[in-house]
Write a structure and sequence with these properties.
Helix 1 runs parallel beside helix 10 and helix 11 packs across helix 12. With 439 residues, the chain is of the alpha/beta class. The protein contains 12 helices and 27 strands. A 5-stranded parallel sheet has the order 5-2-1-11-23. Strands 13-20-14-15-16 form a 5-stranded parallel sheet. Helix 1 links the parallel strand 1 and strand 2. 33% of the residues lie in helices and 24% in strands. It has 3 domains: 192 residues, FAD/NAD(P)-binding domain; 144 residues, 3-Layer(bba) Sandwich (FAD/NAD(P)-binding domain); 63 residues, no CATH class. The chain is globular and about 70 Å long.
Amino acid sequence: MDNKKHKIVIIGGGAGGLELATKLGDTLGKQKKAEITLVDAKKTHIWKPLLHEIAAGSLNADKDELDYLAQAHWHHFNFRLGSMDALNKEKKEISLAPFIALDGSEIIPRRRFSYDTLIISVGSTINDFGIDGAAEYAIALDNQKQAQKFHQKLHNAILKAQTQKDVISQGQLEVVIVGAGATGVELAAELHKATREMTAYGLDKINPDKDIRISLIEASDRLLPALPERMSSSVNRELKKLNVNLYLGERVTNVSTEGVMTHTGRFIPSALVVWAAGIKAPEFLRNLGLKVNGINQIIVKSTLQSMDDDSIFAFGDCAACPVKPGAKEFVPPRAQSAHQQASLLKKTMKRLITSNNNLPQYSYKDYGSLVNLGRYSTVGNLMGSLTGGSMFIEGLVARAMYLMLYQMHLMALHGVTIVSLRLIAKFITRRTETHVKLH
């Protein structure tokens, strides 16, 4: 292999990391100006905003996941399976932990990879704030495996209720979602739809309007606390129409096998608890010798370079980046932030290859937010250069724009032609499939 090639190693194949690896592979990799390597602990990629649909059973992940090895082959970069757990800044070397199979056997031994430029994009996980019982008895929606685990637990609970001789007990089919951000409210609406579709397939003992209850608990005094109040009010009305129980201004203090307790002494019985409140970057980032903040995010300059080493970059949810050069406010952990930063880093890497150290600086552009309540409603708030100000949207227009976000992500990975063919194929096969996963 040509040792003169600039070695770019990207840690994390989420939306931002995979888009960046694809873009760099199609340019610098194809032109043989750089060796691009993507590292991820999983073999496949799924767009994170789809996880609530996987959890509800509305989406079959097997049909929407992307194989990293195939993507690497098609787009001129390397893929390495593993979890980074150590960094040697002096040697410019990362270490990947051994890859262990489900039976405990070692499949891939520990490996080390050198780099000229290291880019960390490992996203974020939920933050349970150390609440008693949360880690043991609540299921997070950080990845595909967790979403599928919740779906299995929900599906089994419904099957058990259908076949048991005893009456359905209190909390047996109640889903409690902790955190009413976008993930929480979208999951609540999707569960309402999916459970009704599921019980329609011969599960006649269960009355979804009576037996299946969905509750949202939020420490703030309103839904979607990080988004405009008008969006919050609109979503509040829609969820009430669906008879979703809203517990606002309630802070969870304990989670158990029986249910959830809040700081006011309220107990909500539930065998199905989802934790969707708070975020933090992965814990291993604290051990790399890089400056991090209280939630493990790597502190970076506006160039997205770490404060400790200019050859190490970080972006997306795992980075604490100023919204603009010199600002004290930090970029919010949103998909559009990672997409914008990936585009900037593509330009940055090209300049590094040509020894141009005048690197571009990142300024966050807020294009607004969209919250999808499935077939019931979609609401959004468009901002910035899209409208010249701020504009609230809902209904079909908002729904179309929400659907386009995923297609734009796919186009960044596959191109327009392949995405168009995928849409046609999905439209045809959808007519011959159930609209909810029944296993």
